[in-house]
Amino acid sequence: MMSLTRVDVPVQDGTRSASSTRARNVASVLAKEKLMAANDSNAQVLTRAVEALTSGDMAGLAEVLNEDFVVHVPGSNQLSGVYKSRDEFFNGFLGKIMALTDGRFTLEPHDILGSADHAVGVYTFRATRGEKTFEWRHVNVYHVRGGRLSEVWQSPHDFEAWNAFWS
Fold first, then answer.
1. Which of 45, 50, 107, 127 has the fewest Cβ atoms surrounding its Cβ within 10 A?
2. Does the reported pTM lie above 0.85?
């Protein structure tokens, strides 16, 4: 067992005991470890979602989406709007994408990051509508709640070209 000895260490605005500084440092390290675990956990939730989507495992995807999953899609095109449930995501948003592309739609993940409450996915998407194929970079920011994705904000990189493609 380690014994702590109180030593006063001068600081700019008074004195601070070394033992209280060590206690704060230990608490800080524990908080950082907890935060890193949450970051990893939220990134893992998004990784499972992306793996399910790219493999066509819709049941697996549904498992990592909250029932009240909300999707914010910018623009003034056929996909734009707010989808306010897991069912609206599958039958509305994803259904529209599949119908508009005849299933010729791919997602390639580049990076997945996590924080205490969020996950971020950096992707390349490709879609074909009729004879026109469009490829774009895309960043999605997800809110994670209870170990599941609860909300996403879509952010296509070349917004004008993306909006025109889906119009």
1. 107
2. no
Residue 71 CB-density burial (10 A; 0-12 exposed, 13-18 middle, 19+ buried): buried
Q: Is residue 7 part of a domain?
A: no
How far out from the chain centre does Cα 1 lie?
A: 42
Residue-wise pLDDT tens digits, 66-108: 999 999 999 999 999 999 999 999 999 999 999 999 999 999 9
Domain span holding position 136: 13-166
The phi and psi torsions of 112 (rounded to 5 degrees) equal: -135, 130
Say which CATH number the domain at 77 has.
Answer: 3.10.450.50
- Tell me the one-letter amino acid at 79: L
Answer whether residue 162 is part of any domain. yes
Q: What is the mean pLDDT of residues 123-151?
A: 97
Count of helix runs (H) and strand runs (E) in the chain:
5, 8
Which token pair is 136? 């774009």
Using DSSP, state whether 117 is helix, strand or coil: coil
On whether residue 38 sits in a domain, the answer given is yes
Split into its structural domains, the chain has a count of 1
State the average pLDDT over residues 106-131: 95
> What are the angstrom distances between the C-alpha of 29 and each of 9, 118, 124?
21, 21, 36
User: Domain for residue 8, yes or no?
Assistant: no
